[in-house]
Amino acid sequence: MDICYTIKDVRERVNAWKREGLTVGFVPTMGYLHEGHKSLMESARANNDKVVVSVFVNPMQFGPNEDLESYPRDFEKDSALCESVGVDLIFHPEPEEMYADGFCSYVDMNGLTGELCGKSRPIHFRGVQTVVLKLFNIVKPDRAYFGQKDAQQLAVIKRMVKDLNVDTEIVGCPIVREADGLAKSSRNTYLNPDERKAALILSRSLKLGRELIENGETDSNAVIKAITDSINTEPLAKIDYVDVVDFDTITPVDRIGKSVLVAIAVYIGKTRLIDNFIIE
Ligand code: AMP
């Protein structure tokens, strides 16, 4: 497995693979890798000749009062996990490598980013889109793998690739959970034991919402209310949002039909956690 720190080094390797006609699968991450990331890498491994993983905590997608500085990092452990899955190359750049002096070009979107996480994190998706397009231009992947855990991000990247004619197939992968239901996240490491227990309210409340829908409820507001009431039973939880939107356009829907995303963001203490389910 190669570890590259510069764009030039990645390009040299990828170009050599392309000359041989090999396909490239790509998994962009911010590191502190867990089973969720691993599932993306395994899908990439199974369907491509070469697999590239990027480990980059992207400053551009963090707001001024967010957790850029404290975001967990453990590159040695990340490398070992990548090696165990058979990853061919890790790209692990410094911010200066990605954002040279004078950097001033961005990718932005008028739709899809006004709801859900875009409301409380106004500059987040601009940062995500910009870094992902840059990474695509560096790695030139045939396929790129994104988790449904970040469902709005998945929808935004699919839209960006379509709108800007990026020649990469976007593959969405299911949410990987802890045994008790909590969606795996690098940020779970912030939770103390009481908060870790309290965090179960996210998956439990979503399960309740899903059961309501499976039992025939089609009114979004009724589902939102049931989920909200359930989360509010947990004293350590503070809701950022509970929403029902169309999964492709990320706009609110009144009636629950096909391709609907039920998404929540909840603070447990100071830690903001997200979770969701999709009605296909
Ligand atoms: P991050 O390192 O948090 O930026 O995540 C990198 C990729 O891993 C994103 O596409 C995430 O959606 C995905 N991911 C993170 N957690 C999970 C999870 N629990 N299940 C599936 N995919 C995940």
Write up this protein:
By secondary structure, the protein is of the alpha/beta class. The chain folds into two domains: 172 residues, Rossmann fold; 89 residues, 2-Layer Sandwich (Pantoate--beta-alanine Ligase, Chain: A,domain 2), CATH 3.30.1300. It is built from ten helices and nine strands. The strands form two sheets. The chain has a six-stranded parallel β-sheet, sandwiched between helices. Strands 7-8-9 form a three-stranded antiparallel β-sheet. α9 runs antiparallel to α10. The longest helix has 16 residues. It is globular, with a radius of gyration of 19 Å. The mean pLDDT is 98. Adenosine monophosphate (AMP) binds next to α2 and β5.
Would you summarize the structure shown here?
The chain is an alpha/beta fold and 280 residues long.
Backbone structural class:
alpha/beta
Strand content: 15-25%
Count every helix, treating DSSP H or I runs of 4 or more residues as helices.
Answer: 10
- Within CATH, the superfamily of the largest domain carries the name HUPs
Number of domains: 2
Instruction: Tell me the series of helices and strands, N- to C-terminal.
Output: EHEHEHEHHHEHEHHHEEE
Average pLDDT for all residues: 98
Low-confidence segments, ≥5 residues, pLDDT <50? none
Largest sheet: 6 strands, parallel
Tell the overall outline: globular
Helical percent range?
A: 25-40%
How are the strands of the biggest sheet laid out side by side? 1-4-3-2-5-6
Number of strands: 9
Q: What name is given to the CATH topology of the largest domain?
A: Rossmann fold
In the CATH classification, which architecture of the largest domain applies? 3-Layer(aba) Sandwich
